[in-house]
Amino acid sequence: MSAHGARAAAALHPDIAPLSFLLGRWAGEGEGFYPTIEPFAYGEEITISHVGKPYLAYAQRTWSLEDGRPLHAETGYWRCPGAGRVELVVAHPNGIVEVAEGSLTGAVLALSSTAVARTSTAKVVDGVVRRVQVTGDRLAYELDMAAVGVALAGHLRATLHRVSAPSA
Amino acid sequence: MSAHGARAAAALHPDIAPLSFLLGRWAGEGEGFYPTIEPFAYGEEITISHVGKPYLAYAQRTWSLEDGRPLHAETGYWRCPGAGRVELVVAHPNGIVEVAEGSLTGAVLALSSTAVARTSTAKVVDGVVRRVQVTGDRLAYELDMAAVGVALAGHLRATLHRVSAPSA
Question: Any chain A CB within 8 A of the CB of B155?
């Protein structure tokens, strides 16, 4: 392997400077619930990084607080296409992709899905609403979902803390 | 942080055993071309891993062979919903999400997008066709794309080699 592509620390692209409060590795716990399931508690790790381009790379995984087994994961990118606007594209391992857009007000993000698509074997998800609020090194989010015939309803709520500083 | 969620080595989920030839970290070089752009050469790294669940986690990044600057990236999941069938969900940092389905024949994957969605500021991509062939520790792929008003045309071609073994 050559030295090409080595991950040097890059300057943050100015387009995503308004989202810099998201950078870092976050860990915490959350609660899951939905009309069709038993409530559950989960641990979560979120990593948000950049490479100097106009997006933040996003990856998340959760695990059961009962036995540590992996639960959900998701991965994608955050973009900031203009003042006060935010975009998110996400792939989910259950065969779902999500496009969401919304507002950025200070360190509060409020997004609604504008498109959800799926593989032919995935469950039907009709919409996702995400609210994220960062206060210093504390990140709290709520996620509502319309899926499997259920109208939009609360599904996830978690609080994480930044456990390592931003890095590229 | 508790010990919950520690990444122990998990057994491969039987559903994705037919895709186990993809596991590992891959590095190599490729060529990009399209009717609307100047051809370019790129370095690439692909990482494909699992956590014991019925999907492979996929992440990729490319860089310019001229100066090492980051070019594309993408991230998502591979699934194997039945004998000879494969599904892929991918998020792209330019605001695109892709759902693709196709066939798995030995170690040859042939997929066509069944859905492409985008944020309101992303360029228009109408379709993606991917062919991947693994021969031992060599992975070759070709990607065709229909985008920005151009009918399906060749866009990427690369060859990578496995540089580290599968890991969870």
Answer: no
